[in-house]
Write a structure and sequence with these properties.
alpha+beta; 4 helices; 11 strands
Amino acid sequence: MKNCSKTAFAVLLMGFFVLAVMRCGGGGGGGGVGGGSPSYSGVTDQAAITAGNAEELALGAFIGGKTAGGPGTGITSSGTLDSYQNHVSSLNSPYSARNVIKNLKSVVDALSLQGENGGMSLTALIPRSGTEQGDCQGSVSYSGSVNDVAGSFNFTFDFRGYSDDCVTYFTGSADASGVIDLFSLEIASMSMHLNALSVTGGSNPVTLDGDWSYDGTVFPIIERMDIVLTDQGTGKDYWLNNYEVTITNSFHPPSCSYDVISVTGRYYDHDHGYVDIS
């Protein structure tokens, strides 16, 4: 099944919906700096939305991070085809917080499910550890256990320049725990803590620190984040605070599908301050 052109169009509509909400002053939600949140060093006041920063803040809030944080980005507000293509490039940037998490999740999924292809056993707790080489470069070591009766797992991962796609390279550590569906042998829910995980490969390498969770047992699917993304080149931080994403897949036969994505929470831009998304 292929994704039709409605995919990019639906995502862009959501990006401009976020922009409209912010221009109207935003809603509630979000939280202050401190507590158990990751460290953030940027402006903590509410952002003043202007014609010069509205588009940048809207896209940053939607994708999770600086819109210029990867190849092929660079936002204009001309309304031309070039501007449209730049929007799509920003939304697809592999160095935004949401897309980094998506790539990392696929690695964690595969390693957590390793050895389960033959079905779950009757042994309650199975310790597992090992080292895997990346398809392109580097390695990842993991240690933890899987409970084959409860379907739960708990692992620590240590990445050393690991890459499967030859685009993003992970260095650092992450802790993951979750639940495996005992019938489909797929990850049903997961939580991850990122410990200053470095992601390189583009012109603007980034570091992620904080927490992410995924719940695929509900409809629509829910992702939650409290993550600070740091641009390693500038040292500037971008914080997704009390950030929640709901994802609903829409399928239109015979060959067209797209995701409807909703975002709520608070986004902090290092230079401009925060905006609330609702």
